[in-house]
Design goal:
Elements: E1 6-11, E2 17-22, E3 25-28, H1 39-46, H2 50-63, E4 68-69, H3 70-75, E5 81-83, E6 90-95, H4 99-108, H5 113-120, E7 125-130, E8 135-136, E9 142-145, E10 151-152, E11 155-161, E12 167-175, E13 177-178, H6 179-184, H7 189-193, E14 199-207, E15 217-224, E16 227-235, H8 243-250, E17 260-263, E18 281-286, E19 290-299
Parallel strand pairs: 6-17, 8-14, 9-19
Antiparallel strand pairs: 1-2, 1-5, 1-14, 2-3, 3-4, 6-7, 10-13, 11-12, 11-17, 12-14, 15-16, 15-18, 18-19
Helix pairs in contact: 4-5
Amino acid sequence: MIPDDSLVRFAQGGAPRLGFVFGGNLYDLTPAGPEYASMAAWLKAASGRVPEALDALEAIARQAAPLAPAQALAEGAGGLTLLSPLDAQEVWACGVTYEMSREARMCESEEPTIYGRVYEAERPEIFFKATPHRTVGPGEAVGIRGDSTWDVPEPELTLVVTPGLEIVGYTVGNDMSSRSIEGENPLYLPQAKVYDRCCALGPAVRLGRGLDPLNLNIHLTIWRNGAVAFEGASHTSKIHRPLEELVRYLGRCNRFPEGVFVLTGTGIVPPDTFTLAEGDVVEITIEGLGTLRNPVVLLPVL
């Protein structure tokens, strides 16, 4: 299901298009003007004028004919394909924002005290996560590294941010991680986090009006051979830092001319005895944002 008041990227036998889901229907925004040509174009156009940009989306939907029911897009009917909401944006991530994450990182690491310190520090942990070509959308495969022995998904509320550093919407994110590589040495964090198919986003960008991002349930299910291999839940109210603070620190001495997607940390950590395997399916649901489902593939070491 794709929630109402959401931006989506989709294709219908051609180039990617930007759409708006409203009243249970999908509206094609692309013909409405250059500011709707892509997610990047819309984020740029919305920067500094978010309320007006949101009002304009609703006005288009009330005047235009729908392209299809939103359910058709979710099901891939009528030649419609739902794409990752990201097009030209970088993805950054925040770490140790949940107490559960702090405990898990301290347990896996040979240098555990640094994670305890960053949880309480004024400056949050923020790291580069993915480029567009390393990011996948709904139904596409996420990857586990062939040189890793302990791999997990990390379900995360993801912020969608304009070039002006305004949080304009939210989506579901999966910050795939090699805990064996990261645990061996904190300096290996980029290798544990940044690789092909290391991030999944979707199904849509739920716009911020009428949604409390710190009052959402998060649920993770990992399927293996048709059965549940792991299941866990958390709640965004457990995020240790204000969301605006995370964005403010990210924007220090840093520009994002196409906008940016920001993963806010995970509160669901599978046990130390669990690792992902090729063929698993990761399913993440965040209340009000929808469900992101991705199979798992093993990436060979070339």
